[in-house]
Write a structure and sequence with these properties.
Layout: E1 10-14, H1 22-32, E2 36-41, H2 43-48, H3 51-57, E3 62-64, H4 70-84, E4 88-93, H5 99-102, H6 112-136, E5 139-149, H7 163-185, E6 188-194, H8 200-203, H9 208-218, H10 226-237, E7 248-251, H11 262-268
Helix pairs in contact: 1-10, 4-6, 6-7
The protein binds nicotinamide-adenine-dinucleotide.
The site of nicotinamide-adenine-dinucleotide has 26 residues, from helix 1, strand 5 and helix 8.
């Protein structure tokens, strides 16, 4: 059901690869809520993924941008503003990749070139998108910029390897840039710390099914789905959250506040 929460708002949604992607669901919900937006992903994802199908469904276009390239991001903003006919009200950064995680590298055996790549793609890209936006003055007042995080930024999940540091940096950037952009232009910057979600990036983490089930058992409300995450993103893009900024917002069914749950106790017994 639509509430027209994003009527008249323009934005960019990155990271939709296939139907499982969190960003895919955000695009569908944002469209339903009346937003106009451009979709973007890395050039390689445009070739491998199904983003063009999503663009057709959402009646929009895809602009390729590698989040590690300043030039690509500048081009993404310029073209988006042109096509949408004005500055932007929201940006979703839904980008994450770790070669170390992908290749199952143990935390005591990380490849440092890949480590830098993980940080560059998954965290510094958030700063890059914010810094280029500021320099180009591409965002309207009270625009909302959102990144997607995971609780491995605060707690240790051994198989998450260097992505734990990437998420810690991502959340820190939301605070530092949130202060700067709020002061300069009343722009909001937040991260959502989402439950484990069955997506291409999620499934790349070894032991994912086990910690998906564990998190579900630990959370009084159960794991949050990609669709539910999309609902939360839409609210954070809307005018109903105009004073929410510099936060890491848990969207995890209560997992982050739990010690142990009766279900886990029962299982252990
Ligand atoms: N799936 C989970 O369990 C989970 C939980 C919490 C947070 N997150 C985060 O949500 C975000 C979206 O991931 P997802 O789970 O929807 O998986 P996904 O694999 O569908 O999305 C990840 C996206 O990042 C894109 N990407 C990778 N390298 C890029 C680059 N250089 N430039 C531009 N885009 C690039 C991929 O093409 C892909 O579309 C990520 O930040 C992820 O860490 C996921």
């Amino acid at each position: 059901m639509s509430h027209n929460l994003l009527k008249g708002k323009k934005g960019i949604i990155t990271g939709a690869l296939n139907e499982e992607s969190i960003a895919w669901q955000v695009a569908l919900r944002a469209k339903e809520e009346g937003a106009e937006f451009i979709l973007s992903n890395a050039p390689v994802a445009l070739r491998m993924g199904k983003i063009n199908e999503l663009a057709t469904t959402c009646d929009t276009e895809v602009i390729a941008a590698d989040a590690t390239s300043l030039e690509d991001i500048e081009n993404l903003y310029t073209q988006s503003a042109e096509k949408l006919g004005g500055k932007l009200d929201f940006v979703l950064h839904s980008i994450g990749m770790s070669p170390n995680v992908r290749k199952g590298r143990d935390y005591g055996n990380l490849n440092y070139d890949w480590y830098l790549k993980s940080l560059d793609i998954s965290a510094l890209s958030f700063h890059r998108m914010l810094q280029v936006a500021e320099k180009m003055d591409i965002l309207n007042e009270y625009a909302s910029v959102l990144g997607l995080s995971y609780i491995a930024a605060q707690r240790t999940f051994p198989d998450y390897a260097d992505m734990a540091q990437a998420k810690a940096v991502l959340e820190s950037i939301a605070r530092s840039y949130g202060e700067r952009y709020g002061r300069l232009k009343k722009v909001r910057v937040n991260t959502i710390s989402q439950s484990p979600t069955k997506t291409t990036a999620g499934a790349g983490v070894s032991g994912f099914d086990a910690f998906f089930d564990y998190a579900d058992m630990m959370s009084p409300l159960g794991n949050a789905s990609a669709e539910e995450c999309a609902d939360y993103c839409v609210v954070l893009f809307s005018d109903f959250t105009k004073k929410v900024t510099m936060q890491n917002l848990y969207h995890d069914g209560g997992f982050s506040a739990m010690g142990i749950s009766p279900q886990v106790v029962e299982k252990m017994n």
